[in-house]
Protein: Sensor histidine kinase
Organism: Paenibacillus ihbetae
Amino acid sequence: MINPFKRYRIDSLFIICFAGLITIVLAITVWTSYAMTSRELADNTSYYQKRLLEELNNEITGRLTSIEQISLTTSRDNDLLTFLSGKEDEFNHYRRSKGIQEALAHLTYSIPQIQAIDLYMEQPEWGDRQSYIQFHELKAAEAQPWYPLLQNNDFSWSEEHDLTTYNGNVSVLSFSRKVYNNSRYLGILVVHVKADWIRGILEGYSKDSNRMLLDLNGRELLSVGTSMKDAGLQEHDLRFKDQSGVLRLHTQPHGVEPLVVYSKVADSNWMLVEITPWERITSGSVKLAGAIITIGIGALLLAFLLTLWLSRQLLKPIAQLVRAMKNYDVGGKQAELAGDYTNEFGILFAGFRRLNERIQALYASLAQRYEQQRKAEIEALQANINPHFLYNTLDQLNWMAIAEGQEKMSRILELMGRMFRIGLSHGESFITIDEELTHVACYLEIQQIRWEDGLEYEVQASQEVRNLFIPKMTLQPFVENSIIHGFNARQSGRIQIKAEEEDGRVRMTITDDGSGLAPESKGSHRRKGGYGIRNVRERFSAFFNENYEIQVKDDEFEGVVVTIIFPRLEEAQT
């Protein structure tokens, strides 16, 4: 993941960070205030709605109970029972029907909430079709909407429905009651109550409320505003199990979850339910959140301006320093930096000035060294004439020895030429181990010619090891030390050279069977190293620091063992 502070401008990062922080704090504040206030408003709304529903329920219960009492009293009237029994002659039956019709009409006129009264019997009397009191055949009751409710009950309230009158259709609630006389079923008395009267009680002082009147079975009798079906409620909803309560509906589309408050009154046959849209409850919270957002946007704008001013004040000296670094020219005119800063920027400016002075001094020193190096290269090119002269001289001596029949001298001159070429190696400090072994083999062969058959040597190295690199002229000083000091005053000797690789390092071993390392007190000429060996140690220390080993010690039986360990190198080092 890329660190933005390493890629983008600092002023942009300042603005983004401060704006992001304020935005996050603003979002948390808005959400917290909205959640807390909406919850508090919902609690308060549900509390007052429950109290209001209780008052409305008490009023409706009193009104509807009075209708039930009137229906009960009427159904037990002796004239009505005699009329429904049909035991009178036709004249008396007609006369009694008129009296009952007048009594029921008087009841309808005296109670304005009653729209009409219907009486269902076996032998109805045909009355005035424009009257509020109608007699019907008992079989005709089966087609009425309230009739299924009487199958298992003696009385029941119907749902809101339309009643056909001579003035048109009127919305009513019907209370139907079966009429009995000595357990004999005589007919049905139906009192139609004006639905607008009950709806007016449900509405109260709020014309935009959503309230419903349910019976104890959860059946909707009448609603104001939203009905149960539209609100997503089902009849006989098990959630209405307590006297009163509050619940949230989660069945509405688009995430709308209205608040439902219901209330039952003790010893009442009805339950009132009010549904309030959540938007209406939280409208105050939304306004508060809007006010907070407005204030937050203002704060965000102020923070943007403040951050912009601060970032410019902080970036101004940095920009000066950056321009000075970009336009820096060694030996040219340098950019002027402000000198009135005494804080961290002043320290940076002072450090940049000191760095410029140091660079100027180093540049002058490098220029001087470059001039010296150029002179040294010229001298080195001139010195290259001497090796070429030496090569040519050795070649001429070799041909002279061949002409004189001096084969040994010719071979020695040839081996010296090979050693000389490997030793120079075009000025390189590292050569392959194969070239190093060839160099020391040439030296040993020259010594063999001098010793004739008295000197033996053996070289062991795999081809993989021979391809690795080693500082040149490493082995020859140790081999020369073995011949000069180890085989001193002797006519024979043996030298073994072994190169191997182990654990990512190269081990070179030189073993001879000479006189060994004699104590210094004996005056022996053999020591642990003269100039050549000291030169090898110094060069290894310069190339490898402490990552090498050179050991010279007596062998377990006779002679000396030289061990050289250094890192594995697959290419020449510079």
Summary: The CA atoms of residues 61 and 268 lie 6 Å apart. The longest helix spans residues 10-75. The mean pLDDT is 80. The radius of gyration is 60 Å.
